[in-house]
Amino acid sequence: MGGGVEKTDEQLMREFVAGDPGGFDVLLERYRRPVFSIILSMGRDREIVEDVFQEIFLKVIKKAETFDGERRFASWLFKIVDNTCIDVMRRDKTARRWNAGGEEALNRLAVSPEANPDAELVAKERRELLWETLAVLPDVQRSVILLREFAGYSYDEISGILSRPLNTVFSDMHRGLKRLRETWPGGQIHVEVE
After folding, report:
1. Are 166 and 155 in contact (CB under 8 A)?
2. Is the pTM of the predicted complex or chain greater than 0.70?
């Protein structure tokens, strides 16, 4: 890229769809850390995390032709991340190892289930409900929440990743959390917005 202007994600994706694999390589590098961080926050089994990461970017390749250049690439990508994480959590063979890692992120968002003999099952169901609830949010609100609460990015970093003004990121977070509270049983979602 030399000393020229850095290409937008949307330009790189259009180039990839047109047959330039270099566009995909740049996007993979730009989004490797945020995507990996989200997946890692949901599961501690490194093998599963790496498999999910590969699955996500294979989906990006397969679905590249469906990318609407009018949308932000980051929102489109994080929808794929979200849907893939939900799918993986539902797979019986990996659910135990996968779900074990999501407790910390879940506890940051939701009140912990009361102690009872079925606490592990309750926690698993709450994680699945959280992901399903996140899935109904508008793309950008979901992306902000995933990046902040699951990947641990600061609001400034999210602003840069999503190419959105900082105040807009705050607004997206506020609206997303409000919507989560409206749909979450008991409305008990706890997150501080700076």
Report:
1. yes
2. no
